[in-house]
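agent> fetching stored inputs for the 3,4-dihydroxyphenylalanine docking request
agent> found them:
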Amino acid sequence: MGDIKTSIEKVHAAAVDEFAAAGDESSLESVRVRYLGRKGRVRDLMGTLGTLSPEERPEAGRLINDLKSRIARLHDEKSAALGASAGGEKPSPETLDVTLPGTPVRLGRIHPIARAAREIVRIFAGMGFSAVYGPEVETVHNNFECLNMPLDHPSRDAFETFFVRDRSDVVLRSHTSPVQIRAMLASKPPLRIVVPGRTYRPDTVDATHSFMFDQIEGLAVGTDVTMADLKFCLNEFGKAYFGPEVTTRFRPHFFPFTEPSAEMDVSCIFCGGKGCRVCGNGWIEVLGCGMVHPNVLRAVNYDPEEYTGFAFGMGIERLSMIKHQINDLRLFFENDIRFLSQF
Ligand code: DAH
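agent> prediction call returned; pasting tokens
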């Protein structure tokens, strides 16, 4: 019995060494056959059982079976180690066709709103305006008070939007106009800026409204800025954005931060101004504008006796919808690739 125990441990020790030395799948396989195969060393030991006494046999058989599973474990561990270092199972040369085309990478593109914003900024850049940006979280002071919209002003109703909890002085901006204030506080006149950015309103979402949309604000301030400058710049813009055949008209309107104020229409780009289903009467409203209110200039310590300015604001989605005949604002925000890839 002592002899067979010694033999078992010898075989095990040799197996440990040989499995450790196996450097690839095929040498591992030959080690496996040498120990666990039909004519392997474990089988040889089984063959010696017959030489033992009947009392010794069961215990020796159990030890040999035990050896068999220890060696099988050595094999499995080594096999896993070789597989891992080879980076998993290697494809055979027949299954790897290097001439197959790869998985195509879909090219992204600029979102239509970002594209329109860039286009509009570029048009105004040609007239000496530079693009500036402001925060979407704004002070109530900049968003309302400095723009001549005091707390009791009725036009605040449609603009009172998303407030920050416990901070009644902070709001998601309801228009890009507060950036006028920031820009004027940051520099002395003359100044010509455009401001693209997101704005927020307490509006229910439908085909023409959203709680979030994009605007471009404009502001020009100097010593001799007049309404003629306003009309010239915005007329140029109308032609550059919608087409050279487009004409513009200005209708009196009201905005708290401008005086006088106007809304600008462009002649309908679909019927040429004759009147159609899109425009009704031949005109399409595109933006609000006016001469900067003296109270706004005072709020930033510009002397209204010395400086005048004009300002304007437009919705980017709206302009884009007109130009591309898009009938639902929500399409811009749904991220449907079939819609977005048309631009
Ligand atoms: N802030 C206005 C709005 O969101 C748009 C606007 C109108 C901006 C006239 C202006 C302006 O600068 O002069 O409805």
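agent> quick read of the result: The longest helix spans residues 57-85.
agent> awaiting further instructions
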